[in-house]
Amino acid sequence: MILVLGDSLSAGYGFDLRQGWVTLLQQRLMREGFPHRVVNASISGDTARGGLARLPRALDQHRPAIVIIELGGNDGLRGLPLAELRTNLGGAIQLAQKHGAKVLLVGMRLPTNYGTSHTRAFHELYAELGRRYRVPVVPFFLEGVATVPALMQPDGVHPTAAAQPKLLATVWPYLAPLL
């Protein structure tokens, strides 16, 4: 079982959830003969704090072998303190590991209007957590998507349905070794 704990980027905001990268992941696993079932525990608008609060129940209910944590974007966009994000993501990683799950952390970046030092610190936080907890980190989930207007919804924050295969292609090289 693979549990995806995320926000709107994994919850399929703005298009049919069946077109989302999480559904495409399930299809790829089946096509390639992996036995894993994917459970999408993502909620639009969620923060790392919200994900951490929901995680114990999801772990008990689904008992995943792998947890993909795709959170932090809303924390960053809301200007929440980086220390709080670090604590909540770290707590989620530790909790999943204590339940025997492997963890994949999915990194995000902030728009440059948040200031150079803050955006750099936000991005580096993911790599830091990866080193601390010895988990793989996808450097930037929206790599090759965020800067392509045709792959982004009019809000400039959420990818389109057409971007979903690219999101899966970004995650797959980091997830495959955990399978």
Question: How is this structure best described in words?
Answer:
This protein is an alpha/beta fold. The protein is 46% helix and 11% strand. It is built from seven helices and five strands; from the N terminus they run E-H-H-E-H-E-H-H-E-H-E-H. The chain has helices spanning 8-11, 21-31, 48-62, 73-77, 82-98, 116-133, 164-175; strands at residues 2-6, 38-40, 66-70, 102-106, 137-138. Helix 2 (21-31) packs across helix 7. It is globular, with a radius of gyration of 15 Å.
Please render the helix and strand layout as text:
Blueprint: E1 2-6, H1 8-11, H2 21-31, E2 38-40, H3 48-62, E3 66-70, H4 73-77, H5 82-98, E4 102-106, H6 116-133, E5 137-138, H7 164-175
Parallel strand pairs: 1-2, 1-3, 3-4, 4-5
The profile of the biggest β sheet is:
5 strands, parallel
Which stretches are low in confidence, meaning pLDDT under 50 for 5 or more residues running?
none
The strand order across the widest sheet is: 2-1-3-4-5
What is the number of E strands?
5
SSE string, helix = H, strand = E?
EHHEHEHHEHEH
What is the molecular shape? globular
Percent in strands: 5-15%
Features:
single chain, 179 residues, alpha/beta, five-stranded parallel beta sheet, 7 helices, 11% strand, globular
Task: Tell me briefly what this model is.
By secondary structure, this protein is α/β, with parallel strands linked by helices. The protein has helices at 8-11, 21-31, 48-62, 73-77, 82-98, 116-133, 164-175, and strands at 2-6, 38-40, 66-70, 102-106, 137-138.
